[in-house]
Design brief:
Distance between the termini: 52 Å
Number of strands: 14
Strand order of the largest sheet: 1-2-3-4-5
Helix content: 40-55%
Length: about 575
């Protein structure tokens, strides 16, 4: 179900852009605007270039040329989808979302949201209950749990920050009774995965590790047995809000450090995350009993460029690294592999954080690791086995579309296997080649289109007349109208098309259009650039005619028909005369 356009507009109107931006950076008033250091992690600065304009609900950074509204800022800095960002701001602002579709579908969406809110409430209450029981209960089992955590090297501040808990053992008055007093129905407990298949409490007698989503909401638990119970670790079952292959333990606590350092360490154990965090290595997260998946990498790619992975060197781990290597290459991530003789939590009991950081610095690229492991198996193997391994590596290489990563992979594989690089090369499809080709360099038409769009976005009111009626001149038999195809590239075409539909309306109406979502950075940059061009009616008319002239000249070059070339030349001369007349008037 899609969030209704009306709800999106209500969220945008209700959201205070200054309050939202202040979640990520400190702002100081400068007249009618606010300014601060840019919150984007890849733009480090000492002089503020990030500005927020409350009356327009807009932000823009003059340093990294990013801009947009509150929804765009949350999308970028929390790596959320559009609907997730709208929901996040709606919760902050107390807005009840409505959904598109039939009345039955809309009602189903409302019921689903109500059900999820109850599930989140149940999980938050369980977290508080288990945490309090661990810290304050005088039971033998709770004391044993505290002693276990102490023996693992965890201090009280770490336990409290990550809200570790202990579920009372069988026979005790557990969370179900407390939930009843809070008005949480048994149905919500079951939907939250807090009940066992037999209807009892799922995590009885276990240490609990709350697991959060990217928005910081508790969505489930990992739970460790104290005695000989099996399994040793038990996760929440898959629920409507808990999918372990997509989640990472410790993410909310690590997010800020990951964003600042642009790197993340992925480990396999919850205690590993806690000990690393406690040692000052705060950019670590853990998978939930699964290998690192492409979904994990996509989630982390919004925060980090470099990802270190620690994993068990078994067959499943090796295969997971192969899959992750290809996914990382597509996402242009620097994926590296680190091996320790024991779990990080145990290793840190005998070694310092500085020693660990040195090991991280010497970690090797995942592709190189994969190739070397394969060549180790190939040594001494028969020709058929060696041929199979070369074939596997060729298949892995062909999955990498980015040309830089592709070249690195070929080089690493050829060095590791001792074969000619041509042996590993396969013809790449034209589509793949085109998909990695960069944008065409700026040309005069592109620059002219940039100037016109900047003027129109900075003063939409002045653009209404040419948008609706064109630009006239004494040499023109009728006013000249620009068409979408007159612009240099697809981005300019899409922005111009939206401006036409919203002719005469303010910028808010344009950015409220869902089709503007993917172009918010460009729109923000153009709007800010237009303010420096001293927009006026004459400036817009001149820029309008320049785009028309350059578009005609492009069409003249492209057509093979000489009669058509003559016709275009005549029209071009008329447009140039009109431009001179407009320039004289101004």
């Amino acid at each position: 179900m899609r969030i209704s356009q009306r709800s999106i507009e209500v969220v945008r109107e209700t959201a205070n852009i200054v309050e939202v931006a202040s979640e990520f950076t400190a702002l100081r008033r400068q007249g009618a605007r606010f300014a601060g250091l840019c919150p984007y992690p890849d733009h480090s600065e000492k002089t503020p270039s990030f500005g927020v304009t409350p009356d327009r609900g807009f932000y823009y950074c003059f340093g990294c040329q990013r801009g947009g509204d509150a929804i765009k800022l949350v999308m970028d800095l929390k790596s959320l989808s559009f609907s997730e960002a709208v929901s996040y701001i709606a919760e902050r602002s107390g807005v009840e979302l409505e959904f598109e579709g039939s009345p039955a579908d809309a009602q189903a969406a409302r019921e689903r949201n109500k059900r999820r809110r109850m599930v989140h409430k149940a999980l938050a209450a369980a977290t508080a209950y288990y945490h309090k029981y661990l810290l304050r209960s005088g039971s033998t089992e709770a004391r044993q749990a505290r002693k276990y955590l102490e023996n693992r090297g965890l201090n009280d501040s770490t336990i409290e920050e990550f809200r570790l808990g202990f579920a009372p053992p069988r026979g005790s008055s557990g969370f179900v009774g407390a939930a009843r007093k809070l008005g949480i129905e048994r149905q919500a407990l079951d939907a939250a995965g807090l009940l066992s298949p037999r209807g009892g409490e799922r995590f009885l007698g276990r240490i609990t590790f709350p697991i959060s989503d990217r928005r910081g909401r508790i969505v489930g638990f990992g739970a460790r047995a104290m005695g000989d119970d099996h399994p040793k670790y038990l996760n929440s079952p898959e629920t409507e809000i808990f999918t372990k292959r997509d989640l990472l333990y410790g993410f909310p606590q690590a997010a800020e450090a990951i964003r600042k350092q642009q790197s993340v360490l992925v480990v396999e154990g919850y205690t590993d995350v806690l000990m690393l965090y406690q040692a000052g290595i705060k950019n670590a997260v853990a998978t939930l009993g699964t290998a690192t998946t492409p979904a994990h990498l996509r989630s982390l790619s919004g925060y980090a460029d470099k990802i270190h992975v620690l994993f068990d060197p078994d067959d499943a781990g090796e295969k997971a690294i192969e899959r992750a290597s290809a996914a990382a290459a597509e996402l242009k991530l620097d994926l590296r592999v680190l091996r320790l003789p024991e779990d990080p939590a145990d290793w840190l009991l005998e070694n310092s954080a500085e020693d660990f950081s040195k090991l991280l610095a010497n970690s090797i690229p995942a592709l190189e690791y994969v190739f070397r492991r394969k060549t180790e198996r190939a040594r001494g193997a028969e020709a058929a086995e060696r041929s199979r391994i070369v074939s596997e590596i060729k298949d892995l290489i062909t999955e990498i579309e980015d040309p830089v990563f592709h070249g690195d992979a070929v080089r690493l594989a050829s060095e590791a296997l001792g074969v000619n690089p041509e042996t590993l090369q396969q013809r790449r499809s034209p589509a793949a080649s085109r998909s990695t080709r960069g944008p065409a360099p700026a040309d005069p038409l592109q620059r002219a289109g940039h100037e016109l769009l900047a003027l129109l976005l900075s003063r939409p009111d002045l653009g209404e007349e040419p948008m609706k009626n064109g630009v006239g001149g004494p040499s023109l038999s009728e006013p000249f109208m620009l068409a979408d195809e007159d612009f240099a590239n697809e981005d300019q075409t899409r922005i111009f098309s939206l401006l036409k539909e919203h002719a005469g309306q303010d910028l808010d109406s344009l950015i409220a259009d869902e089709r503007a979502r993917p172009m918010m950075d460009q729109i923000g940059a153009l709007s800010s650039a237009g303010e420096k061009l001293y927009p006026s009616e004459a400036a817009i008319r001149e820029a309008w005619l320049r785009v028309g002239i350059l578009s005609h000249e492009r069409a003249k070059r492209q057509t093979p028909d000489y009669d058509e070339k003559d016709r275009i030349q005549v029209e071009t001369l008329r447009l140039k005369d009109a431009l001179r007349a407009v320039a004289t008037e101004s």
